[in-house]
Amino acid sequence: MDSFWLKIFYSAAINWAARAVLVGRLKDRRRVESGRFTRREVNDFLKRMWKRYKRLAPDAPREKTFGSRLNVLLACLTLSGFQTFLEKGVERKYAVEMLADVTWKLYRQWSAVVFFIARVITRNPAKRMETAINLFLRFPFSPPGYRFERLPAADGVSLDMLRCPVAEYFKSRKAADLCIESWCNLDFALARMWGGSLERRKTLAAGCDRCDFRFFNKPIFEVKTH
Q1: Angle at which helices 92-121 and 186-193 cross, to 10°
Q2: Alpha-carbon dihedral angle through residues 135, 136, 139, 145, given to the nearest 10 degrees
Q3: Residue 84 buriedness (CB in 10 A; 0-12 / 13-18 / 19+)
C-alpha cells in the first residue's frame, strides 16, 4: 500500500526531476560521440525504472513508521534507476552521479518547504536551521526507524545517527556508494542552502558505527564523507 501511495503522490515530481536533469545530458562522459539523452530516451528510462521498482518494492523491508517505510521505498526507487542505467551500459560512477543530481533536485524542493515552515516558526536566522532539522527528525527521520542520540551543541545541532534504514537497505544491495553520493552527501548542500554548514566524518553507509552530524549555524570548512 505504501508503494502505491508513493507512486501516486511522488511519481509526477520524480519524473519531472529526472527529465530536468537527464534530457540533454551526455550518455557517456568518456565518449562524447555517443550523444546526449533525448526526451524520448529519458521517458523510456523512466518507464523501465518504474517497472523495475514494481518488482523490487515488495521485497523492501517494512519499517514500523510511515516515514521510514517511505524513505526505504524511495531508496528502492533510486536503486531501480541505478540498475536501469547499468543495464543500459552506463558506467557505474557516472550512473551514481546522475542519480545524485536527480535526488538533489527533489531533495532541494522538499527541503525548501521545510525551511519555509521554519521561517514561519521563527524569525531568528540562527534558529531556523535548528528548527528545520527538528522538523525532519519528526518526519520522516523519526524513531524507531531512525535511532539517534542528541549531543550538546553551543552553535547549531549535533547528533549521532545510530540506525538508518536507508543505509541498511543500500548496503544489503551492495550499493553503499550510491547511498553515500545520492542520499548522504546531499546533507552538505542542504546545510549550505539553509545558511549554515555541516561537518560529518562518519557514515553508517560507509561501514562506520554512526553518522556524526555536526550542523553549524554559520558556514565553516566542510569535511566530506570518505
Answers
A1: 30
A2: -130
A3: buried
Digits of tens for pLDDT over the chain (226 positions)? 567 667 777 899 999 999 999 999 999 999 999 999 999 999 999 999 999 999 999 999 999 999 999 999 999 999 999 999 999 999 999 999 999 999 999 999 999 999 999 999 999 988 999 999 999 999 999 999 999 999 999 889 999 999 999 999 999 999 999 999 999 999 999 999 998 999 999 999 999 999 999 999 987 654 444 4
- Alpha-helical runs (H) found in the chain: 2-22, 39-56, 66-87, 92-121, 125-138, 165-172, 176-179, 186-193
State the architecture of 2-216 in CATH terms. Alpha-Beta Complex (3.90)
Domain extents in the chain: 2-216
Query: CA–CA separation, 56 vs 5, rounded Å?
Result: 16
What is the CA 115 to chain-centroid distance, rounded?
A: 17
